[in-house]
């Protein structure tokens, strides 16, 4: 095994070193995405074994994102101060403990606590590489690397569907989490050996620009950051919430799929997302060269996801995995907001900018996952059947998506220079 790659000039990585670093981070992110999405595949087994209802499932899946969100603000400071390598290694050690605790849990409260701990542990798996990419790669390459990291995450979600279903008879769900603990530990070895050490640099300020060393205040006040918040919380968070949980129960409870068919449907959804993020990675540098900005692409493309949601609610039992895949694919326009936020702020504040925005995204994932579950249970007061309650909950989520998009649109159009663009 070779030593950690060195910088080509300054902070920029040579091509070979950049590929090695990307792949090393991508392996860890693959396992973090697998852990994130596995509850959708295991939901029938966990519901049967531990007698969980829809609200319990939503809270259990959302617990991962609650733990994730809890770490984001300190994570950003630590990334800017200590660099991606040190921070991700410390966090992944917590993820290993979380996976082992999940495998040993015998009650819902034990599962939930382990899930929160796991979410905390893997919360650096995307932010750490993106923070490094902000300094190590060119802006156009950063957009490509972001999309391909998300593609790796989709590959992990694909692995959480049919492959998990196939392994279940041999390992059980507890054995699955023991395996994940071991594989995450192995990914830590690769990161320790291959990722460059972090070099602190003094911030370069223009006259009148606030110091990026002063915590999160200047990030929260940044107009571009605030413009992206509504769609990050509701639309981006909602896409992940559907992909990692509610698409599965919908297929079983509303569309009449068997658990095996639902796992196959999730496989199709996540494979569609994998291909979509690969395509974004291919076209993003070309779009950037043509002067097309992320906010323009979001404004033009994201409304297509609302049309798909309307079709899903309208069709009910006729809405299978194909429509949910189309919803997730059309929602990926909002993923362009993540690297755009990092590029809108100084490089020495990249960790905090990305982590603050990620806090909004995963706070939204937790809120949407738990909120849909609570709403499904709450709608029993009307005497509705379970499929109708699912449709009602998804319809309410769709309305929230539209209002978040309108808030983004208004803020974007109000910014100086946009009317003329």
Give an overview in words:
With 421 residues, this protein is mostly helical. It has 16 helices and two strands. The chain starts with 6 loop residues before the first strand and ends in a 7-residue tail after the last helix.
Secondary structure elements and pairings:
Elements: E1 7-9, E2 12-13, H1 15-50, H2 54-82, H3 84-104, H4 108-121, H5 127-136, H6 139-159, H7 162-194, H8 217-221, H9 223-253, H10 259-289, H11 294-301, H12 303-315, H13 321-331, H14 337-343, H15 350-378, H16 386-414
Antiparallel strand pairs: 1-2
Helix pairs in contact: 1-2, 1-6, 1-7, 1-9, 2-3, 2-4, 2-9, 2-15, 3-4, 3-5, 3-7, 5-15, 6-10, 6-14, 9-10, 9-13, 9-15, 9-16, 10-13, 12-13, 12-16, 14-15, 15-16
What are the main properties of this structure?
single chain, 421 residues, mainly alpha, two-stranded antiparallel sheet, 16 helices, 2 strands, disordered N terminus
**Strands, count:** 2
Secondary-structure element pattern, one letter each: EEHHHHHHHHHHHHHHHH
**Biggest pleated-sheet summary:** 2 strands, antiparallel
Q: Biggest sheet: strands side by side, in what order?
A: 1-2
Shape: globular
* Helical content class: over 70%
- Beta fraction of the residues? under 5%
Give the end-to-end Cα distance, rounded to a whole number of Å: 50 Å
> Helical stretch count?
16
Task: Report the mean per-residue pLDDT as an integer.
Answer: 87
Radius of gyration (Å): 21 Å
Poorly predicted runs are: 1-9, 205-210
Q: Structural class, judged by helices and strands?
A: mainly alpha
């Amino acid at each position: 095994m070779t030593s950690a790659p060195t910088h080509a000039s300054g902070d920029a990585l040579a091509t070979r070193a950049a590929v090695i670093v990307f792949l090393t981070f991508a392996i860890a992110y693959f396992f973090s995405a697998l852990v994130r999405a596995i509850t959708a595949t295991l939901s029938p087994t966990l519901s049967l074994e531990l007698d969980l209802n829809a609200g319990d499932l939503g809270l259990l899946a959302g617990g991962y994102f609650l733990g994730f969100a809890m770490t984001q603000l300190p994570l950003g400071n630590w990334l800017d101060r200590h660099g991606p390598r040190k921070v991700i290694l410390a966090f992944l050690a917590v993820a290993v403990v979380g996976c082992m605790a999940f495998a040993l849990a015998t009650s819902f409260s034990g599962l939930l606590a382990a899930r929160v701990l796991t979410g905390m542990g893997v919360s650096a798996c995307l932010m750490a590489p993106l923070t490094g990419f902000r300094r190590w790669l060119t802006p156009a390459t950063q957009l490509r690397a972001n999309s391909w990291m998300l593609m790796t995450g989709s590959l992990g979600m694909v692995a959480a569907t049919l492959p998990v279903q196939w392994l279940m008879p041999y390992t059980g769900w507890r054995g699955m989490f023991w395996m994940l603990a071991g594989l995450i530990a192995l990914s830590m070895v690769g990161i320790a050996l291959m990722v460059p050490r972090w070099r602190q640099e003094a911030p370069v300020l223009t006259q009148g620009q606030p110091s990026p060393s002063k915590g999160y205040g200047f990030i929260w006040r940044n107009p571009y950051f605030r413009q992206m918040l509504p769609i990050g919380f509701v639309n981006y968070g909602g896409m992940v919430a559907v992909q990692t949980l509610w698409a599965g129960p919908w297929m079983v409870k509303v569309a009449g799929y068997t658990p095996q068919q639902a796992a196959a449907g999730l496989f199709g959804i996540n494979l569609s997302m994998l291909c979509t993020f690969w395509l974004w990675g291919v076209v993003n540098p070309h779009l950037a060269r043509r002067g097309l900005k992320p906010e323009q692409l979001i404004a033009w493309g994201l409304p297509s996801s609302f049309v798909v949601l309307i079709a899903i609610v309208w069709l009910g039992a006729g809405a299978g995995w194909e429509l949910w895949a189309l919803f997730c694919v059309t929602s990926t326009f909002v993923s362009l907001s993540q690297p755009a936020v990092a590029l809108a702020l100084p490089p020495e504040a990249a960790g905090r900018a990305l982590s603050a925005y990620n806090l909004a995204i995963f706070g939204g994932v937790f809120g949407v996952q738990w909120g849909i579950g609570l709403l499904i249970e709450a709608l029993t007061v009307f005497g509705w059947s379970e499929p109708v309650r699912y449709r009602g909950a998804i319809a309410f989520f769709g309305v929230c998506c539209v209002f978040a998009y309108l808030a983004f649109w208004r803020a974007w159009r109000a910014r100086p220079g946009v009317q003329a663009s």
